[in-house]
Amino acid sequence: MPKYYLDNIFTGRSYGMDFLLSVVYGFLEEGDKLYFEYGYSYINSFPYKNVENFEDSVNRIWYRPKDKEEAKSIIGNNFMINCIVLERDRDMESCKYRLLVVESMESIELMVTEYEEGSFQKLLKTKLKPFLEQGVKVLID
After folding, report:
1. 3-state DSSP of 29-51
2. Cα distance between the two ends of the chain
3. CA angle centred on 60, ends 70 and 106, rounded to 5°
4. What distance in Å separates the CA atoms of residue 23 and residue 101, rounded to the nearest whole number?
5. How far apart (Å, rounded) are the C-alpha atoms in residues 129 and 61?
6. How far, in whole angstroms, is CA 105 from its chain's centroid?
7. For residue 35, which of 25, 27, 115, 131 sits 20 to 30 Å off, Cα-Cα?
8. Is 82 helix (H, G, I), strand (E, B) or coil?
């Protein structure tokens, strides 16, 4: 599973969370489902009644906001997100990407784990291209 890092997501942006979510939603193709990790069910329960969610085999709660605004309202100021892009609803075996914000001493990056070889390169030429034109850099692990 190749890993890539998207750098310059937050650098010099006054609306970094909005930009981050735009990039994350840019990974969705027709029919894909985007889920965000909420936490573990043995620590707390999911308090949002009208938001689709499920628990995976290791007791993580994943939720699927209707749009970026709903995602932002649940995430709040916590930019350290963990997401998965699934081809089939609630089916972890259909995972195309895992998107995880990671922090180092020098920067904050979006780590992309690609589960379908070549799909990330395709997105870089299409849906993610506008973000590259706005200064996002791709680093390879």
Report:
1. CCCCEEEEEEEECCCCCCCCCCC
2. 11
3. 75
4. 12
5. 31
6. 21
7. 131
8. strand
Distance CA 37, CA 63 (A): 6
Please report, for residues 16, 45, 79, 105, 112, the alpha-carbon distance to residue 73 in angstroms, rounded to integers and kept in the order given.
15, 17, 12, 28, 23
pTM beyond 0.90: the answer is yes
Per the CB < 8 A criterion, the answer to whether 40 and 61 are in contact is yes
Length of the chain: 141
CA distances from 82 to 1, 34, 40, 126 (A): 17, 11, 13, 23
Beta bridge partners, 88, equal none
The string of pLDDT tens digits covering residues 22-71 is: 999 999 999 999 999 999 988 888 999 999 999 999 999 999 999 999 99
Mode of pairing for the β-strands spanning 52-55 and 33-40: unpaired
Residue 120 burial (10 A CB sphere; 0-12, 13-18, 19+): buried
- Name the 3-class secondary structure at 72: helix
